[in-house]
Design goal:
Keywords: Repeat. InterPro entries: PPR_rpt, TPR-like_helical_dom_sf. This is Pentatricopeptide repeat-containing protein. It comes from Nepenthes gracilis (Slender pitcher plant). This protein is mainly α. The chain is built from 50 helices and no strands. The chain is elongated, with a radius of gyration of 42 Å. About 40% of the residues are buried.
């Protein structure tokens, strides 16, 4: 037996038990729909109990229905190998040593004890071979019902046929048994034939067999033949309360409810004994026909007569109300008859109520009924135990559920599929993925396999926790049982494998998916392509790109770029590149978009020669090149730092089309990234001279490059030029200025020198004050809010701006820096690694080491690694 560690006790109790006192759950992990939050709370006296105490109490209750002697009988029988003669002899000997006193009641008790058809058959056979004991009508009928309920009709008929061939002095008893057997097995035609043979030989059925045959005919809707058999029963003066019950069933099955009610009243007025089953059949028929009001009135009327036992009718009424969705009416009725008449339902009725209440998340009512069953010492069956297990899962008391599960052999609990699903889902929601997986393996060993929803939940959890070997086993388990996971589960598994750099395994799973005619999702293809790109297998990436398009997914420019870059890192890249281009052109009508994708990819791979070759192919094919084509060729030259080629191509473009802002922007940005500030400045001036307003990106990249080269005079010139063309200082530019102001006084000094050259405006004046404050040229005696407002007037603040402000404040106003940290959090900004480092450095410089270490712990808790050298 698998014993699971209760490692989740401490971590679960801390947040799950308080939830039992509230009306809803709040968990970081979403629960599946059938594990959704409870609508009613659990009593505090129960919720505050230790898990072991609760589990011990329920284990003792579960054990109350266990009979050690009968348990031993089934243990012996279940370990017997029918094909091994010595094993059968050993089992016979072990049963004989128990000293059993065989009788009809004891044999019936054994047969009803456990739903183990094979063991029941073995015991029935063994008992029939013991000296001094003969099977009775009741024991034969019991084993036949067991076979019938298990739907083992072929086995049942073989059993009957074997008895039909026997020749015994007890022919009458055998014929009685056979007629009953075929009747119970749903073969009333065979039973009637045997009955005819009996009558031909002058033999007759006994009253019990007559009623079994009559009941089988009614069940088979053979109402005319049933009337003939009923006449035979009346002629032999064998009519009794069982007859009345079968007649009532016949009328109700024929939907003759008025006649059925009249039949009941005739029985009552004639002074006949009316058993509870007769009336319960009528109540059931009215409820089945949705005549609840009439059924309710009839129950009240018959109860007042005091002539009919009402327990069975109450049970049927409660069950019917629950099945009709009238759960509150059923509970109210139960409480009424329990308090007024002392009525206690049987375990089956309790189970119906429990399972329905559990589905509706009415955990308080489930708890009340379970407590009630314990108080009334109602012996729980397997359904009750499984429902209790599910209850603890749904109530968040997974420790109790695990304790009961681990102790299941002590009281004979066999978890059903619902209990397994609840356990696995709850453990996944609790983060106990390993325990959930081991319970799954145990359930498979016991013949259960989870439903699709549970399988999906566990698969998601395993993928999220990167337990990919377990996920692989789970998929194998599923396929071995002809259970085919959904495509989404495959996709998540493949993506998880790719992210874990096990792209080959993911590719194998993908092949299995193709074999099953399932199509991987677009995201899965992208994950596999990226995985093979990282493994320098561009050839497989290209193959997947083509397959992806065949399956109806459209790759974007970024994906093409990644595949082309990977191909260009392989041997003989030109061949690979052109083959992929040819295949694309053969599958799609040649269009500018496809050519541009390849120009873009070659440019990012720093193969401008390939990019230019594609461009020339377009021209030769008569495909019109567009502005994007020109820009992509320019960018390919600039990325490879082939500046002269870029300038020449730019000149060629000017002959073919009018140069627009996009082309200037591409040149300026590309030249800046190539560290060619002088040429970039010339391009920006050319843009202005042609009456165009440069893009904000052009200004940003130029100011960033010039600042890094400490050409602050040109930086100020560009800022003034931006103001002239109506562009505001962006957050990016503002942050660059603050950063360089913090590094040195040079920017501030250039700003002061520029006052005479440029007319100062309110916005430039405020920006100058900020540069002065951050250069420590004026005392930062403004309040924290004032500094924040000053930056806001110059440019929009972002987290980088706040980090710069923190750096400035941490120099001489560390308390102000701490205040600013809390302000940015209140405004909804999420501090990053640099935010914490700036604050810790400031605290350490001011000698507040203890506070710095506390912030380091907070930083580590947030998932960032602090630098050890801060504290050295």
């Amino acid at each position: 037996m698998l014993m699971l560690p209760l490692k989740c006790i401490t971590k679960t109790r801390a947040f799950l038990y308080p939830l039992l006192l509230s009306s809803s759950f709040s968990s970081a992990v979403p629960y599946p729909s059938f594990l959704s939050p409870a609508s009613a709370s659990i009593p505090s006296d129960f919720a505050n109990c230790e898990p072991k105490e609760v589990a011990f109490s329920f284990k003792n209750w579960f054990k109350s229905g266990k009979n050690p002697l009968i348990e031993r009988i089934f243990e012996i029988l279940s370990s017997t190998d029918d094909e091994d003669l010595s094993s059968r002899r050993t089992a016979d000997s072990a049963l004989s040593q128990l000293g059993l006193r065989l009788s009809e009641p004891f044999v019936l008790e054994v047969l009803k004890y456990k739903n183990d058809v094979l063991s029941c058959l073995k015991f029935f056979d063994w008992a029939g071979r013991q000296s001094g004991f003969y099977h009775t009508r009741a024991t034969f009928n019991a084993i036949l019902k067991i076979l019938s309920r298990a739907k083992l009709m072929s086995l049942m008929l073989d059993f009957l046929d074997s008895h039909l061939k026997l020749i015994s002095v007890h022919k009458v008893r055998f014929y009685n048994t056979l007629v009953m057997g075929y009747a119970v097995a749903g073969k009333p035609d065979v039973a009637l034939q045997l009955f005819g043979k009996m009558r031909f030989h002058g033999q007759d059925l006994d009253p019990f067999a007559y009623h079994v045959l009559l009941n089988a005919l009614v069940e088979a809707n053979c109402f005319d033949v049933a009337k003939v058999v009923l006449m035979q029963i009346k002629m032999r003066d064998c009519e009794n309360e069982v007859t009345h019950s079968i007649v009532m069933k016949s009328l109700c099955k024929q939907n003759q409810l008025t006649e059925a009610e009249q039949y009941l009243r005739e029985l009552l007025s004639g002074g006949r004994v009316v058993i509870g089953h007769v009336f319960s059949v009528l109540v059931d028929a009215f409820c089945t026909n949705n005549k609840f009001e009439h059924a309710s009135k009839l129950i009240r009327e018959i109860r007042e007569t005091g002539k009919v036992p009402m327990e069975k009718s109450y049970a049927v009424w409660i069950r019917s109300l629950v099945q009709a969705g009238k759960l509150d009416n059923a509970l109210e009725f139960l409480q009424t008859v329990k308090s007024l008449e002392g009525y206690i339902p049987d375990v089956f009725r309790y189970n119906i109520l429990l399972s329905t209440l559990l589905r509706k998340n009415r955990l308080k009512d489930v708890y009340d009924l379970l407590t009630e069953m314990k108080e009334f010492q109602i012996v729980p069956d397997k359904v009750t135990m499984n429902t209790a297990l599910c209850f603890f899962c749904k109530a968040g008391m997974v420790e109790v559920a695990l304790e009961l599960y681990n102790s299941r052999s002590e009281f004979g609990l066999t978890p059903n599929s619902m209990a397994y699903n609840y356990l696995i889902n709850t453990l996944c929601g609790d983060g106990s993925i390993d325990e959930a997986y081991y319970i799954l393996k145990n359930s498979i060993d016991e013949g259960y396999f989870p439903g699709r929803k549970t399988f999906s939940i566990l698969a998601d959890a395993l993928c999220q926790e990167h337990k990919l070997d377990k996920m692989k086993e789970l998929v194998i388990y599923a396929l071995e049982r002809n259970f085919f996971p959904s495509s989404s589960i495959y996709d998540k598994f493949i993506s998880a494998l790719c992210r874990a750099r096990r792209v080959e395994d993911g590719y194998l799973i993908h092949g299995e998916l193709n074999r099953l005619n399932n199509v991987s999702s677009r995201v899965t293809y992208i994950d596999m392509i990226n995985g093979f790109n990282k493994s320098n297998r561009g050839d497989i990436s290209a193959r997947l790109l083509l397959e992806m398009q065949e399956k109806g997914h459209s790759p974007n420019r970024r994906l093409f770029r990644a595949v082309i870059c990977s191909l260009c890192e392989m041997e003989n890249p030109e061949k690979q590149f052109l083959q992929l281009l040819d295949m694309q052109l053969s599958r799609h009508n040649p269009e500018t978009r496809i050519y541009n994708f390849f120009i873009d990819g070659a440019g990012h791979a720093k193969r401008p020669d390939l990019a230019r070759e594609v461009f020339e192919m377009m021209v030769r094919s008569g495909i019109s090149t567009n502005l994007s084509s020109d820009i992509l060729i320019l960018q390919s030259y600039l990325k490879s730092e082939r500046i002269s080629d870029a300038l020449n191509f730019f000149h060629d473009i000017s002959k073919r089309r009018k140069i627009r802002r996009k082309l200037y922007n591409s040149m300026v940005v590309g030249l800046c990234k190539a560290k060619k500030s002088d040429i970039a400045l010339a391009m920006l001036r050319g843009c202005r001279e042609n009456g165009l307003i440069p893009s904000l990106e052009s200004y940003e990249e130029l100011i960033l490059l010039l600042s890094s080269e400490k050409k602050y005079d040109m930086v100020i010139t560009l800022i003034n030029d931006m103001e002239k063309v109506g562009r505001r200082v962006s957050s990016f530019i503002g942050n660059v200025l603050l950063l360089h102001s913090l590094k040195s006084r040079d920017l501030y000094e250039c700003w002061v020198r520029s006052r005479d050259a440029y007319l100062e405006t309110p916005s430039s004046s405020m920006l100058g004050q900020l540069i002065a404050a951050f250069s420590a040229q004026i005392r930062a005696d403004l309040q924290v809010e004032d500094l924040e407002d000053a930056i806001q007037q110059c440019f929009p603040l972002d987290l980088y701006s706040y980090n710069m402000l923190l750096r400035r404040l941490s120099v001489d106003r560390i308390d102000g820096a701490c205040e600013m940290f809390h302000r940015l959090c209140q405004k909804g900004y999420e501090p990053n690694r640099w935010t914490y480092h700036i604050l810790m450095h400031g605290l350490y410089r001011h000698g507040r080491t203890a506070e710095a270490k506390r912030w380091a712990e907070e930083m580590f808790h947030r998932g960032f690694d602090p630098e050890e050298r801060i504290f050295l």
